């Protein structure tokens, strides 16, 4: 798959899961050093928000917006994933006054499992996955331009 970064084409490595498939199970560590496993979240809808770098403006906008919107939907489990380090994520959350489930994928296990790793920049593609309570993907968006925000309204519409 190809996406663009400020107009330049970059390759996304691997195969991305499709709508209708059960989301591939993964486990990553959160900021409290606890393992979060996707299969443990069955029974409730899940939104997985993937950002390339929490320290960039569009990633910050995406993370803050979803954090605000998901606070209104307590029945939905919300995860933000980036390949930033735990320390970078903690520093960002502290600076922004945001408390949320942030998962770090520094080893790119999730990124490769979901086909979102971009080797040229060693970052993850910007993506959103919405899963139903059984873990099936009911919405997927991989933004064609990395510096473009995802369609927040579409995600919220699907959750309602």
TrEMBL record:
Gene3D superfamilies named among the record's database cross-references: Glutaredoxin
PROSITE patterns to which the protein is assigned, alphabetical: THIOREDOXIN_2
Residue span, Thioredoxin domain: 17-160
Enzyme Commission no: 1.11.1.-
Stored InterPro entries: AhpC/TSA (IPR000866), Thioredoxin-like_sf (IPR036249), Thioredoxin_domain (IPR013766), TPX (IPR002065), Tpx_Peroxidase_subfamily (IPR050455)
Pfam families linked: AhpC-TSA (PF00578)
CDD domains xref list: PRX_Atyp2cys
Coiled coil regions, renumbered to chain: none
UniProt key word Ion transport: no
Keywords: Antioxidant, Disulfide bond, Oxidoreductase, Peroxidase, Redox-active center
GO molecular function: thioredoxin peroxidase activity
UniProt-recorded name of the protein: Thiol peroxidase
Originating species: Vagococcus intermedius
Organismal lineage: Bacteria, Bacillati, Bacillota, Bacilli, Lactobacillales
